[in-house]
Amino acid sequence: SSIVLVFEAPMGTRRNFDAGWDDGGRNNGWTWCIGNGQHVKVGQKLGRV
Amino acid sequence: LKSAWRDTKIEWYPIPIGLGIGFLGLLQFYRSQRAEKDGWETAESGDVDGDRPPPRKRVRPSGPWQVQVMSTLPLKAISRLWGRFNELILPYWFRVPGFKLYSWIFGVNLDEIAEPDLHAYPNLAAFFYRKLKPDVRPIDPDPCAIVSPADGRILQFGIIEKGEVEQVKGMTYSLEALLGQASPSQAAGDDTSSQGRKASPKDSADMAMHEEFARVNGISYTLPTLISGEAKASPAIEFSMDASTASKPSSEAKVKADLALGDGRPWYLPKTSSNALYYVVIYLAPGDYHRFHSPNSWVVESRRHFAGELYSVSPYLQRMLPGLFTLNERVVLLGRWRWGFFTFIPVGATNVGSIKINFDAELRTNSLTTDTAADRAAALATKKGQPYTGFTEATYFNSSKALGGHPLERGEEMGGFQLG
Question: Would the pLDDT of B251 be above 60?
């Protein structure tokens, strides 16, 4: 089984935490908190605006 | 018998050419009849007079021989049979060793399940749809986050560009193929917004400006053509159902408060011109917890059920079969959240079977009746001169008239995948 989420969100300047960027919380766009192949659990953060 | 086999003289004669041609013609006729009966797309679909509706079009998947073989199998029948098998009551003595073996093979953490006594699960279907202890899956407290709706593995995530969702390693499928096109009533141009007000000329201008922005920046999605946000139930076809179930007042209040953080505009008008569409694909392995939860506070306005076929959605097959998700049976829940459009799509697989949505008692997946309903819907749409959109649709307007849909809180259980 699979679950696909498609959603609209503001574009951010920081696409992924993996990129190592940290703008001190000034970024107000969508930011991913996951990586490909990562195992996730219910309730775990996938990303934030 | 031995002497007859050895001593009988064998004489070979050529088959008359006419007989050979006749046989090949008969074979071709039989194949075309069979294809039409099965609903596979043929060049001459429908008759000239229009009395008989054309067969429901299905696309035969392309791919390597493994996929071709799989496409010939009666996957739905196998899935239903597999489901029946898994509903057989297991002997009491077999349950503990059987479920422990299953857990060992597929990596189930038995310490997390709500009912630790394995004797309480009468069959594999019940164990597969097990509940977890209340505190083992804490919800991330960040109010601006989207949380994982299920246990699983991230297969792919990113931004949707040019209306294409990347599946795995460069294989893409269009957003419209996944979610479905605008239904006929929506395509007719109902311009009432999801907030219950008529779209003003300014809204139209904003929308045009947004589309222009999206086009220039290569984010060519056209949300208004995917689904319009009308506030009243307007079934796309006669078989659409108004699957209304009462929502919890607490959920309604919380979701309403969360949505109020937005600017109250219709979801298809973005808050700023810098919005984008994002996607994430989560794969649930056989040993994972198979219930899913709401990833954020949002309102489900409608659902679309694509009967499709059932395949495996394993990463291996996703690499082998382009457009796998668009061939599979899936339920598309369309709605909105604080930042605009939001869609939740559970995709079924043959070895799992049916998709359950807790607040939609009328939804039946992986069943014979859905096949029949889809066929009837296709025939009716043709009779009414409308294109068949390939799905049956239901709206949740009656669930909460204030919100125009069914409200879901973050972390709230929405449904799950069941065996069979």
Answer: yes
Rounded to whole angstroms, the Cα distance separating B378 from B238 reads 10
Mean predicted confidence (pLDDT) in B380-406: 70
Task: Band the pLDDT of B147: cuts 50, 70, 90.
Answer: very high
From the list A32, A37, A44, the residue facing B147 with the nearest CB is: A44
Q: How many CB atoms lie within 10 A of CB B200?
A: 11
Tell me the ipTM for this assembly: 0.80
pLDDT tens for residues B262-320? Answer: 655 554 454 455 677 888 888 888 888 999 999 998 888 888 888 776 666 666 766 66
> How close does chain A come to B154, measured CA to CA in Å?
5
Q: How far is residue B246's CA from residue B280's CA, in Å, rounded to a whole number?
A: 30
**DSSP line for A5-42:** EEEEEE--S--BGGGT---TT---S-EE---TT-EE-T
CA–CA distance, B420 with B413 (Å, rounded to integer): 20
Is B169 an interface residue toward A (CB < 8 Å)?
no
Whether B391 has its CB under 8 Å from any CB of chain A: the answer is no
Nearest CA of chain A to the CA of B279: how many Å?
Answer: 4
Largest CA distance in chain A: 38
| Selected residue of A33, A39, A42 to mutate for chain B interface (largest B Cβ count, 10 A) | A42
DSSP, res B402:
T
Contact criterion met (CB < 8 Å) for B149 and A42: yes
Tell if the CB–CB gap between A29 and B278 is shorter than 8 Å.
no
* Best CA proximity match to B295, nearest among B331, B333, B260, B262: B333
A42 and A25 Cβ atoms separated by less than 8 Å: no
Q: What is the DSSP string of B119-181?
A: GG--SHHHHHT--B-TTSSPPP--TTEEE-SSSEEEEEEEE-BTTEEE-STT-EEEHHHHH--
Task: Compute the C-alpha angle B43/B44/B45, nearest 5°.
Answer: 105
Helix (H) or strand (E) holding B346: strand B340-347
- CB of B263 less than 8 A from some CB of A: no
Cα B411 from Cα B420, distance rounded (Å): 26
What is the predicted pLDDT for the residue at B140? 87
**A3/B290 CB distance under 8 A:** no
Distance (Å, whole) CA B234 – CA B398: 12
Which positions in chain A touch B267 (Cβ < 8 Å)? Answer: 8
Q: Does B282 touch chain A (CB under 8 A)?
A: yes
